[in-house]
Amino acid sequence: MIDTSAPLTTEQVSTITRQTNYGTWRYQKGWKPLHIADAEDCWFTDGAGNAAPGYATTSRARLSAKLLEVLPKGIEKFFFATSGTEAVEAAFKIARMFTGKTKIISRYRSYHGSTMGSIAATGDPRRWAMEPAGKGAGVVFAPETNCYDCPIKHTYPGCNIACADYIEHMIRNESDVAAIIVEPVVGTNGVLVPPPEYFPRLREICDRHGVLLIDDEVMAGWGRTGKWFAMEHWNVKPDILTTAKGITSAYVPLSLCATTTKIANYFEDHYFSHGHTYEAHPLTLGPAVATIEEMQRLKLVERAAEMEPYVRQKLEALKAKHPSVGDVRGLGLFFAVEIVKNRATKQLFNTMRDKVEGKPLVVDQIAAKMMAQGVSIQAWVSHFVIAPPLIVTKEELDLGIAALDEHLAIADALVEA
Ligand SMILES: Cc1ncc(COP(=O)(O)O)c(C=O)c1O
């Protein structure tokens, strides 16, 4: 392990960058990134003091070394961009270049970004406006894993995880599948936590068919679920991990697409056809080092895990009290409260179509009432996502959940007898 608190030499900065980062638009073999130590007017100075870009910077090397401490073992080569969307785009391009295959499998209840490729892989209705012609080609959708309201009407555990097996059926029938992209715990679309067998089974299926597993941790990463990265809950190693948001505590725009060494090695003598002007911009990288150090100092990942039973118990109490609460689910400091008109049929108050047509949603009415009291909650179709800062205190949680408790009366009044 590299001591990231000690000053790094120019040689170290260049070597760490070369070993752990992708050099853009090039074969990786032969890349010797120059350490840029300073710049003024028309001149920049390298680490050896000479006046003289894939440049190396101290913050780039320092963050790369830090990432090796916290990312799942084996995820060791990095491409930095500025949004989760760009990290996902990079992941698709890398998967396609590496496998020589084209298709991407995604799942309906998902969000993976807003650009042509990432919106094409977004299962939720944000994709509809771009259909059919305005989105990247080659994405096919699998059913999500939703044990509360299974899209294929199975019941866990009797289902024997049919939703994973169906993905194998898709791979066989689609052929040409480069990768499957998953949110390990689905975020905006309902904090869907899969059963324990799901990801180990999916990993086996991917391995059997030479399909890469892309783990989109833009929302679920960085301690949110009580582990540094959510996929660790199931001891499953992805081939590519994408993340953003929490990497800098969202203070500055930074995202990461990280791959295994096996994928990295492929690009030693194959052209890495990807890059951005603001790739690995030093202004974005320093705050990520500070964020990780602060998370380690305050033990925020452990804290999210410790707070989980408290939040769960408070939200379960809401479910016991309010007939409109159909389900409560989550991990760490990442929960959903789903509201329904009818608990028996699980009929939601609003549909995805209501959302895209701009109809008034019951969840939005409740969220507006909460906001008027100073409590912000994310509302989506017919559920709330509860994802407070990891430093939240029990008193602050009580305050937020009390506001939800009060205004759930709006939904209770609309429940069908
Ligand atoms: C799981 C997931 N992937 C990708 C994205 C896209 O990230 P960004 O909005 O930074 O482009 C998001 C954004 O919320 C997300 O939640």
Brief synopsis:
The chain is built from 13 helices and 14 strands. With 417 residues, the chain is of the alpha/beta class.
Pick out its properties:
single chain, 417 residues, alpha/beta, seven-stranded mixed beta sheet, five-stranded antiparallel beta sheet, binds pyridoxal-5'-phosphate
Architecture overview:
With 417 residues, the protein is α/β, with parallel strands linked by helices. It contains 13 helices and 14 strands. The protein has helices at residues 10-20, 58-70, 84-99, 116-120, 162-174, 198-209, 261-266, 282-297, 300-321, 352-356, 362-372, 394-407, 409-412, and strands spanning 36-40, 43-46, 75-81, 103-107, 139-142, 177-182, 212-216, 240-243, 255-260, 325-331, 334-342, 347-348, 378-380, 383-386. The strands form 3 sheets. The protein has a 7-stranded mixed beta sheet with strand order 3-9-8-7-6-4-5, with helices on both faces. Strands 10, 11, 12, 13 and 14 form a 5-stranded antiparallel beta sheet that branches. Helix 1 crosses helix 2 (58-70). The termini are far apart. The mean pLDDT is 96. The structure holds pyridoxal-5'-phosphate. Pyridoxal-5'-phosphate (PLP) is lined by residues 83-85, 88, 111-113, 183, 187-188, 216, 218-219, 244. Pyridoxal-5'-phosphate binds next to helix 3.
Which stretches of 5+ consecutive residues score pLDDT under 50?
none
Number of strands: 14
Helix tally? 13
Strand order of the largest sheet: 3-9-8-7-6-4-5
Mean pLDDT: 96
Largest sheet: 7 strands, mixed
Amount of beta strand: 15-25%
How much is the radius of gyration in Å? Answer: 22 Å
Q: Provide the structure class.
A: alpha/beta
CA(first)-CA(last) distance: 61 Å
Helix content: 25-40%
List ligands, each type once: pyridoxal-5'-phosphate
SSE string: HEEHEHEHEHEHEEEHHHEEEHHEEHH
Shape: globular
